[in-house]
Amino acid sequence: MPVMKYGQKKKTYKDLGGITGSSLTKQENQADKLRKDQQKSAEELLTLRRQNQQDEISLMKEGTQKKLSQIDLDYQKELDTIEKQRTEWEKTQKGKLTSEQESQLSISEEYAFKAYQKRVSETNKEKVRIRPESMAGIFHPIW
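The structure assignment produced for this chain is given below.
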């Protein structure tokens, strides 16, 4: 088997469809730009989705369902913020998070979930407390 020099190998590689040099850099730059554009579009879509959800909640009749919907949306927004932080850290650290960062994200997620559960529980307790008072005028004892 004949030994090929670097220039010959490069030419053979190109002849077979391989990309090298400035063409490769150009494609990498295009792919990077496309990735950034897709990320920006995804963020804009999520922002619009959350705004639509907020608008729907604002139009709801006051009551328990409206409160629960707002609690759920607030929780989703909190998770969005945590995920955005994760993505930013990964971006600046070549996709790797430190154990401290992983721990901080986990703590944040856990805190958000506990706050969500507490608010849902409080709202449901309030619903149970209000219901008997609102029914007091409906039932009349027969003596």
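Interim note for the steering committee: The chain has a mean pLDDT of 85. Residues 57 and 65 are 9 Å apart (CA to CA).
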